[in-house]
UniProtKB/TrEMBL annotation:
InterPro entries in alphabetical order: Acyl_CoA_acyltransferase (IPR016181), GNAT_dom (IPR000182), MshD_Acetyltransferase (IPR050276)
Name of the protein described by the UniProt record: GNAT family N-acetyltransferase
Superkingdom of the organism of origin: Bacteria
GO molecular function: acyltransferase activity, transferring groups other than amino-acyl groups
Length: 216
């Protein structure tokens, strides 16, 4: 197994590996057909690693590093330099072989070289992924629910984070609490009790972790 830096000729294998990895996962709505380019308006750098076996891409990891302005205003974990865990995927035939750990070990070295202080990770339910992020030192700072269904109303909202409760904080334009909002056809619900407002077809829980990076 070769762990190496991503190169542009890896894109097809990158897309295939991510698609297969996510196919039966809670990330049902993540269906990229090309590797996204780095958004230079908010990010300064990108860390990119792949795992290769017999010439085939079987694992990938991307971490984008926010610029100073976005880092200092980041809702979940403001700091002078914050990074966002953009992608982690392992081909289904190669899962359980330590590939994710090997990719992260390489990325962690780079995070330290870049002097990144905090790494934010967004994930969804599933013992394997959540256990892995917790193993890496991830502290849960927020959770919410994704609901496929029909609500009784769709309010205008403002988005925030209640750090003490480790939950999203949703309010209307008058400052009153809201139970949910609509994002790309999926309803985001802040509190479990408010799931009763829906006739639910499917429901997935999301988690946000923050890892404090120990700088060398």
């Amino acid at each position: 197994m070769l762990i190496r830096k991503y190169k542009s000729s890896d894109e097809k294998g990158w897309v295939y590996t991510k698609a297969l990895s996510y196919l039966f996962s809670p990330f049902f709505d993540d269906r990229e057909t090309a590797k996204p380019t780095l958004n230079r308006d908010i990010y300064d750098d990108r860390i990119e690693w792949v795992a290769e076996k017999d010439g085939q891409i079987v694992g990938l990891l991307d971490i984008d590093i926010y610029n100073q302005e976005c880092s200092q205003s980041y809702l979940y974990a403001p700091a002078d330099k914050v990074a966002y865990f953009t992608n982690l995927a392992v081909h289904p035939d190669y899962q359980g072989q330590g590939i994710a750990q090997a990719l992260y070990d390489r990325a962690l070295q780079e995070l330290q070289e870049y002097q990144v202080e905090r790494l934010a990770i967004f994930t969804r339910e599933g013992d394997v992924a959540n256990h892995l992020y917790q193993k890496w030192g991830g502290k849960l700072v927020c959770s919410d629910y994704l609901v496929v269904g029909q609500p009784k109303d769709t309010p205008t909202f403002r988005f925030g984070v209640d750090v003490e409760k480790a939950s999203l904080s949703l309010i209307d334009m008058a400052g009153q609490p809201l139970p949910y909002y609509l994002r790309e056809g999926i309803y985001i619900v802040a509190n479990q009790a408010d799931l009763d407002l829906f006739d639910i077809e499917e429901c997935y829980q999301e988690f946000t972790y923050v890892i404090d990076i120990c700088l060398a």
